[in-house]
Amino acid sequence: MTAPSNGRGPGPGPGPGATIPPTPAGLILPQAGAGTAVPPGILAPQLGAPGIEDVPRPPSLAELVETSGLRRVHVLAWRDLDDPESGGSELHADKVAERWAQAGIDVSLRTAFAPGHPESVRRHGYAVVRKAGRYSVFPRTALSGALGRTGPWDGLVEIWNGMPFFSPVWARCPRVVFLHHVHAEMWRMVLSPKLAKVGETVEFKVAPPFYRRTRILTLSQSSRHEIIELLGLPPRNISVVPPGIDPAFTPAGERSPHPLVVAVGRLVPVKRFDVLIDGLLRAHDEHPTMEAVIVGEGYERPELEKKIRAAGAGAWLRLVGRVDDDELLSLYRRAWVLTSASAREGWGMTITEAAACGTPSVATRIAGHTDAVVDGETGVLVEDPADLGKTLAGVLSDDDLRARLSAGALAHAATFTWAETARATFAALVREAARQRGSASPAARAANVIGQRR
C-alpha cells in the first residue's frame, strides 16, 4: 500500500525544488479539492455515473453517528493489517475503522490469526480479535456470530475477500458488505485446480443468491459493473465508495536525476510482477540509465529474484521488500512513473497514493485501474500487458507528457479522502439500519442526502 534515458533530463515535476506545470486550459474544480484544478474527464467516474450521486452537502460522519443510534459496529475480515500478506483491503479496513473509532463508535475487527501477533490488540482506537486459521476463520466466525458470542452489535460490516462469511444467513443486525472486486481468475493463480474450482463455485454460484438483498459496497464503477455482470447481483443494491488517500502523500523535493520507475504490491501471481519485469527490461533497453524499484513482499519473491538475475538486471532493478512509510513516500516523490501490471484490482491504491505526490502511472487496463487512472489525463492505461514496456519507454521519453499527466494526477488525487470514505460507508450502514427498522430517523434522512444508489 505502497525509465531508459534518452539523454534528456527529468521533466518538470511538482514540489519544492521542481517546477509545477501550469494549469492546462479548460480545467474545472472538484468539489473535494478546494483550489485544485481537474481535467473535465476526471470527475466523470465519480459524479453523475450510475451508482453515485453528485452531493452538494452530505452530512458529516459526526452528524450521522450522533443521530444514528449505531454505537457498536463489528467488522469481519479475512486478514488483519499485521498479516504478512496484508494489502489494500486491510489498509482500507484500518482507515475506515480508525475514523469510526475517532467519531465515538465502538469498533471491533474480527479476523484470522496473524503470525507472530497476539490474539487481541487495540489499534488506532479499535479492537482487533484474531481467532482461527487462514481458512477456518470463515466457518468459525459464522458460527460465533450465529450463537451470539461476539455481540450484541448495532451494525455489521462484512469484507468479502474471495471467500464470504455468509453474514446474510446468520446476522440479524443491520449490515453492509464490502466487496472490493470479483476474484475470478485469481483462484487459479494461487490455488491447486481442485481448490480453485471450489473457490470459483462458491464465488459465482453458491454465495450470490444469499447476497441478493444485501447492500454491497465496492471501490469503483468498473468493479461495480463486474459484480453485476459476473455475480449477477442486482444493480440497485450495489454502491460505489472510493478509497481515500492519506494526507501525508504530497509532492515535495525533486525527482530522481535519472529515470526512476516504482511499483508497489504483494509479490503474488495476480500482481503479475513477472510480466512487469519483462516490461521494465524492455524500457531499460531504450533508457540505459533507468532505475526501477519494486516494493513489497510475497511468496513469489525467490522466482522474481531469479528472473532478475538471469536477465543481468540486478544493478538497476531492485526488489526492496517492505519499506517504512517515509521511504515509500520518498520513492513516490522521486519516481518519474509508477507502474502496475496487475490482473485484477478493486482500485489500485498505490496509483492514487503516487498521484497525490504528482507521479503519473502506466498500468494495465483492468477493472479498478480504469477508475484510479484517467487514461491520458493522469496516466496511461495499456490494453495488452506485453506493451507495458514500450508504453513506459514512451512516457519516460516525453517530458511534456509527464508534466501534463503529473498535473492531472495531482488534481484527481485531491478528490479522494479517507474521511469521505469512512463517512459514506457509515451512511450506507445507517440507511440499512433505517430500512431494517422500517423507520425514517433523522440520521436515515440525513444519510439519504447521498441517495440510495450511491
From TrEMBL:
<feature type="domain" description="Glycosyl transferase family 1">
    <location>
        <begin position="254"/>
        <end position="408"/>
    </location>
</feature>
<feature type="region of interest" description="Disordered">
    <location>
        <begin position="1"/>
        <end position="33"/>
    </location>
</feature>
<dbReference type="GO" id="GO:0016757">
    <property type="term" value="F:glycosyltransferase activity"/>
</dbReference>
<keyword id="KW-0808">Transferase</keyword>
<feature type="domain" description="Glycosyltransferase subfamily 4-like N-terminal">
    <location>
        <begin position="87"/>
        <end position="248"/>
    </location>
</feature>
<keyword id="KW-0328">Glycosyltransferase</keyword>
<dbReference type="InterPro" id="IPR001296">
    <property type="entry name" value="Glyco_trans_1"/>
</dbReference>
<dbReference type="Pfam" id="PF00534">
    <property type="entry name" value="Glycos_transf_1"/>
</dbReference>
<dbReference type="GO" id="GO:0009103">
    <property type="term" value="P:lipopolysaccharide biosynthetic process"/>
</dbReference>
<dbReference type="Pfam" id="PF13439">
    <property type="entry name" value="Glyco_transf_4"/>
</dbReference>
<dbReference type="InterPro" id="IPR028098">
    <property type="entry name" value="Glyco_trans_4-like_N"/>
</dbReference>
<protein>
    <submittedName>
        <fullName>Glycosyl transferase</fullName>
        <ecNumber>2.4.1.57</ecNumber>
    </submittedName>
</protein>
<feature type="compositionally biased region" description="Pro residues">
    <location>
        <begin position="11"/>
        <end position="24"/>
    </location>
</feature>
